[in-house]
Structures are given as C-alpha cells and as structure tokens.
Amino acid sequence: MRAGTQGLSGFTGVTLLGLTGAVVILLSSSKTAIFLWVNDHTSPAWDPLFRWGTFLGDGWVFAGALLPLLLWRRWPYWAGLTAAALLTLFTSASLKTLYQEEKRPVAFFEERGQNLRLVPGVETHSYRSFPSGHTMTAFACLGFLAGAFRYPWLQGILAVLAWQVAYSRMYLAQHFLLDVTVGAALGLIIAGVSFRSVSYLARRFSVSPTNAS
Length: 213
What we know:
Elements: H1 9-28, H2 31-40, H3 47-53, H4 60-72, H5 75-98, H6 105-110, H7 133-148, H8 152-171, H9 177-204
Helix pairs in contact: 1-8, 1-9, 3-8, 4-5, 4-7, 5-7, 5-9, 7-8, 7-9, 8-9
C-alpha cells in the first residue's frame, strides 16, 4: 500500500457538509421536534442496521484501527492514534461530568408524559446526554484513519460511517441532534490535531511514517 500523508481533506469535506446541514436544522427547529421526527421515522426493518452500526462509536474501534496501522504505517501513526484515543476519552469524560444532569431523550420525554418508540434490546440511559461520546469517538478514530490512508473513496466511506454512528445515536433514543453535532465537530478537531502530531514526530525523529519502501 502506498503511503498517504496528505491529510484528511476528503473526510473533512464530507463532515463539514453534514455539520452545516445539522446546524441549519438546529437553527430552524426545536430539539424536541427534531428528535420526534427521527423517532417517528424508525422501523423494525432498520433497527438491526443502527443497533449494530452504533458499535463503531465504542472505544474498541481505536484498538481495531490499530491493526492496519501496524501493518502499513510506522510508529508515528501508532502514537497519533493513541493521542486521538486519549484526547477523545478526556474530552468526552470532562464534558459529560460538566453536563452530567443533561437529560437524554428517554428521561426528557418521560418527564413530559410522552412515550417513544425504543429499539428492542437496546439499553437506554437517562442522563449525561451532552455531548455524544460515541459520535466523538467515531469521527476522531475514523477521521484519523482517513488521514493515514488518503484514498478519496476510502475517506468518503469512513465519513459516511461516522455520520451513520451519529444518526444511530438519535435513532436509538440515546441523544439529541445537538449532542451528536457537537460530538462530530469535536471528533473532527481531535482527528486533525492527532494527525498533525504524526508529521511532527516523523520530522522530529527523522522517521518515514510509512512501512512501504
């Protein structure tokens, strides 16, 4: 595999396009109306896709991403991915502690006497809604991989997968649109900062960041 060190512009473009759309929706409607629209457009046929797709936002995705980096990239990339994981953990934990009383959709609508359609087999939570840690993780990890492997088609796929995680968090009644929008933005920033550290380490220690000859 050829080296790819030209950044994550393709991933960034798709992510910014999605963020722009999300901001427009947030400014034009209430979080209640937005979430209820999503909840009204769920279906048993789609449940498995989002139930399993949301796992791409679990912390284990960083460990899974390490394998291709071990095969095709040198240690600066491994260090960069580790930095992305630690930054994601710190940022998510800090904000969730700061906003620990922020209600998730189930608690929010239960307080208003309104029932939601929930996906069978999915454990829902009541608090620490802001921001979406799964979304942040997906964009930080998949964004970093997009920078490591610069093929435009791959960057597009990774960005779509990250947005799938974001939507799944609303589909599964775990978060509001604002939660996933902020999570996506923070994940993108973390991916960018972590990816830049790869170039710095490669220059600092005069190491080629790729295993390819």
